[in-house]
Design goal:
Length: about 260
């Protein structure tokens, strides 16, 4: 196994630098929006931030594969592969909101094993790696202790890759169990905020690997319930995602299965 503790520290520093870079780019007018598809936002800062992260990772780990949302890539063998989202929450970023982040995940042997997620405002760095624990700004994190869906706050992610009716069914299913719903425009933040207990769960019927790899590694180390997201062809094709408070895992799993 690679030295995950060292890699985690390097990834955290790069993510923090990249978040500051993206923020400055936006201040300099590099957040003008184009579209890759319906509700699929892109700015000049996305590409420039990914280029910055790739260069930093290549300097430290020249033999590792890298996959990014904007510039692609592929898995080569069973060695480490970095999986990047340079700006998750681009729609928020482009409109001046601070609900966006930089996400740097790493998979090895087909499993999400490391994550570093940085926000600029507020200044937050979430990190975690297999066997190394999970922290926010250096302090250990744990998910919520919620046991009752009637007391739960759940974010339901919306994916253009699934029929809108399926999103409605999943949302209605959660509400029927008494949960309060949120939709925040950044899947990565919804996932990692579940790991720190700000939310009780994040569920979505499809999410890409670059949106979830880092958060899955962090949430797993924090002690969350997690579905089988990092299985099958998840790196290339994505999967359904469910992360939640441990005591809600059975109910969340049943809800996602019922509304699949």
């Amino acid at each position: 196994m690679t030295d995950l503790k060292h890699r985690m520290a390097v990834a955290a520093a790069i993510a923090e630098e990249a978040a500051a870079l993206a923020f400055q780019m936006r201040a300099n007018g590099m957040a003008e929006t184009t579209f890759k598809g319906a509700q699929d936002f892109l700015t000049e800062a996305d590409g420039a931030t990914e280029t910055f992260i790739r260069a930093k990772l290549a300097k430290h780990f020249p033999d590792d594969a890298i996959i990014g949302e904007e510039q692609g890539g592929a898995v080569t063998g069973d060695g480490p592969v970095w999986i990047l989202d340079p700006i998750d929450g681009t729609s928020n970023f482009s409109r001046g909101s601070d609900r966006w982040c930089v996400s740097i995940g790493m998979a090895q042997g087909g499993r999400a094993v490391l994550g570093a997620i940085a926000r600029y405002a507020p200044a937050e760095v979430f990190v975690g790696a297999e066997g190394c624990g999970a922290t926010l700004n250096g302090q250990p994190i744990r998910p919520a202790t919620t046991t009752d869906m009637r007391r739960a706050i759940i974010e339901v992610g919306w994916s253009m890759r699934k029929p809108l009716a399926k999103f409605h069914e999943l949302s209605q299913g959660a509400m029927a169990q008494g949960a309060g719903l949120r939709v925040g425009g950044s899947g990565t933040l919804g996932l990692v905020e579940t790991a720190v207990g700000r939310l009780d769960a994040y569920i979505e019927q499809h999410i890409n690997s670059w949106d979830a790899c880092a958060a899955v590694a962090i949430a797993r180390e924090a002690g969350c319930w997690i579905n089988s997201f990092d299985s099958g062809d998840w790196i290339a094709s994505g999967n359904p995602i469910g992360i939640g408070a441990p005591a809600l895992g059975g109910q969340l799993a049943a809800l996602m299965q019922e509304k699949a």
